[in-house]
Amino acid sequence: MLLSHNSITYAGFAISSNRVIYNESERERSLVLANINDYPIVAQTWVDNGAGYPDQSKAPFIVLPAVFKMNPKGVQAVRIIHNGNTMPQDRESVFWLNLYEIPGKTQQQLNLSEESRARLDLAMNTQLKVFYRPKSLKPMDIEQISEKIIFSIKEVNGNRVLVCNNPTPYHLSFINIVLKQKDKGFKISNQVGLMVEPFSEKVYELDSNPELPYSYQVDYTLIDDQGYTFDGLFLSK
After folding, report:
1. CB of 203 closer than 8 Å to CB of 152
2. Cα–Cα dist 8/47, whole Å
3. Distances (CA, A) of 61 to 29, 32, 48, 84, 226
4. Which residues have CB under 8 Å from 140's CB, separation 6+?
5. Separation between Cα atoms, residue 22 and residue 193, nearest integer Å
6. Looking at residue 172, what DSSP letter applies?
7. If we measure between CA atoms, which residue out of 44, 17, 42, 11 comes closest to residue 29?
8. Which of 2, 64, 166, 218 lies in disulfide reach of 196, CB 3.0 to 4.6 Å?
């Protein structure tokens, strides 16, 4: 099994972690942000279900400070606090921390003549997963979780698909899945949204149809709590 670290630089932010594990026993979690731009920014922060709009946020978390300015190369700590709402106790829950960045101008840009100031400013939103973990869950490391995963091939509307069954109370955060059969490899046709929720199945469409009933294997890569990658292998019986 191979472990390697992921980058944690997003847009104009460098962030101290690429995911947040919020344990029920904790009063709050903190992240440190650094503005790696050569210009100041205004940042807005909130937690939601992934929609990316602060006015639609219904997540049971608040983020402090909610709005702040960061100078070039500046550093800012943000606190994530659970609001006390009741959460499922038999599984993880997942939410999204939004870091919305509105760019400012460098001193050089401010000094330009009016004729030279034509420019396009783009606001950017960085999203990080926030996993709320009840204290009632049995601790499992990434290798123990990997051993529970079951893959199968099924036929849906005339096309063969790969199905992942997650019998654990933890989310499976995949970044890569490849089905292999004989000398052929079948990739997932849509690499967006690979995560599998606890106690559920997820169907992945393939770029071509594998044969049945031949044996197969599935190579995959998961992300663990620290943001490291873990390479796993599933062999059909």
Report:
1. no
2. 19
3. 11, 17, 8, 8, 21
4. 168, 170
5. 22
6. B
7. 17
8. 166
Cα 137 off chain centre by:
21
What is the C-alpha separation between 199 and 63, in angstroms, rounded? 29
Contact of 127 with 98, CB cutoff 8 Å: yes
- Cα–Cα distance between 151 and 235 in angstroms, integer? 9
- The answer to whether the CB of 232 falls within 8 A of the CB of 222 is yes
Q: How far apart are CA 108 and CA 103, in angstroms?
A: 14
pLDDT tens for the chain, 237 residues long, are 333 333 355 667 889 999 999 999 999 999 999 999 888 999 999 999 988 888 878 899 999 999 999 999 999 999 999 999 999 999 999 999 999 998 875 555 555 555 555 555 567 899 999 999 999 999 999 999 999 999 999 988 888 999 999 999 999 999 999 999 988 999 998 777 899 999 999 999 998 888 877 899 999 999 999 999 999 999 998
Q: What letter would DSSP give residue 153?
A: E
CA distances from 233 to 2, 152, 198, 222 (A): 12, 13, 20, 11
In a 3-state reduction of DSSP, which class is residue 35? strand
Instruction: Give the global pTM.
Output: 0.86
232 with 146: CB under 8 angstroms?
A: yes
Distance CA 24, CA 132 (A): 7
